[in-house]
Amino acid sequence: MSTWANLGLQDSASPLMEQLIFFHDHALLILVMITVLVGYLMFMLFFNNYINRFLLHGQLIEMIWTILPAIILLFIAFPSLRLLYLLDEINEPSVTLKSIGHQWYWSYEYSDFHDIEFDSYMIPTNELSTDGFRLLDVDNRIVLPMNSQIRILVTAADVIHSWTIPALGVKVDGTPGRLNQTNFFMNRPGLFYGQCSEICGANHSFMPIVIESVPVNYFIKWISKNINS
Ligand code: CUA
């Protein structure tokens, strides 16, 4: 979860988010190098005294400053494509969770098991306990096993929503009439918070997502408890 003064990315809780952070840092480094170089050149132009009345063309420099940026762009494009296809990969998931966006709450279905479905509403500030997180905690949390491949199916019942969890590198639009798919793998236990990130109406800011990442045996206990009730 992001707390105040955290301006960067959240700590990753999945291998894919780790890769996304590496890619972000890589692209940012190239961006900084370009900015510094161009800034230096522009600044130095003010102090340029060289004048050449007969300078009309420069084949070599034109070649260099055309091809070099193209090569630099490839160093961003190929890692970006690698990540894109890695994110799209579905690695034989062991659990499937279906999340449906509504105005303005999420509802969830554990389609692998009978009758496990529930709504997940934000806890209003006036009902929040002292250890709760304002605008971020929900009444019914998602429970999912860590160290397992998990498939998420996302859709919506009314308008477009977006199921987004920064620490897991997941961001999928829920669109009425469509079923979108993604997957993730949580490599540590904990609580992972997310929010809807598609402007979906008046209470768009008030439909957060909370995942409890637990060891597999706890997950099985939770599932069997909920099947019987
Ligand atoms: Cu749902 Cu914004």
TrEMBL record:
Q: Where are the transmembrane segments?
A: 27-51, 63-87
Q: Which cofactor does it need?
A: Cu cation
Main location (coarse class): mitochondrion
Q: Can you cite an annotated GO cellular component?
A: mitochondrial inner membrane
Q: Which reaction does it catalyse?
A: 4 Fe(II)-[cytochrome c] + O2 + 8 H(+)(in) = 4 Fe(III)-[cytochrome c] + 2 H2O + 4 H(+)(out)
Write out the annotated subcellular location: Mitochondrion inner membrane
Check the record and name the Pfam families matching this protein: COX2, COX2_TM
Which GO biological process entries does UniProt record here?
ATP synthesis coupled electron transport
Recite the UniProt keywords alphabetically.
Copper, Electron transport, Magnesium, Membrane, Metal-binding, Mitochondrion, Mitochondrion inner membrane, Respiratory chain, Translocase, Transmembrane, Transmembrane helix, Transport
Q: Record's InterPro entries?
A: CcO_II, CcO_II-like_C, CcO_II_C, Copper_CuA, Cupredoxin, Cyt_c_oxidase_su2, Cyt_c_oxidase_su2_TM_dom, Cyt_c_oxidase_su2_TM_sf
Q: How does it sit in the membrane?
A: Multi-pass membrane protein
Under Gene Ontology molecular function, one entry of this record is:
copper ion binding
Q: Where is the Cytochrome oxidase subunit II transmembrane region profile domain?
A: 1-91
Q: In the record's cofactor note, how is the cofactor described as bound?
A: Binds a copper A center.
- Domain Cytochrome oxidase subunit II copper A binding, by residue range, is 92-225
Tell me, how does this one assemble?
Component of the cytochrome c oxidase (complex IV, CIV), a multisubunit enzyme composed of a catalytic core of 3 subunits and several supernumerary subunits. The complex exists as a monomer or a dimer and forms supercomplexes (SCs) in the inner mitochondrial membrane with ubiquinol-cytochrome c oxidoreductase (cytochrome b-c1 complex, complex III, CIII).
The UniProt entry's sequence similarity note says:
Belongs to the cytochrome c oxidase subunit 2 family.
- Described function: Component of the cytochrome c oxidase, the last enzyme in the mitochondrial electron transport chain which drives oxidative phosphorylation. The respiratory chain contains 3 multisubunit complexes succinate dehydrogenase (complex II, CII), ubiquinol-cytochrome c oxidoreductase (cytochrome b-c1 complex, complex III, CIII) and cytochrome c oxidase (complex IV, CIV), that cooperate to transfer electrons derived from NADH and succinate to molecular oxygen, creating an electrochemical gradient over the inner membrane that drives transmembrane transport and the ATP synthase.
PANTHER family membership: CYTOCHROME C OXIDASE SUBUNIT 2, CYTOCHROME C OXIDASE, SUBUNIT II
| The name this protein goes by in its record | Cytochrome c oxidase subunit 2
Q: Give the originating organism.
A: Drosophila tetravittata
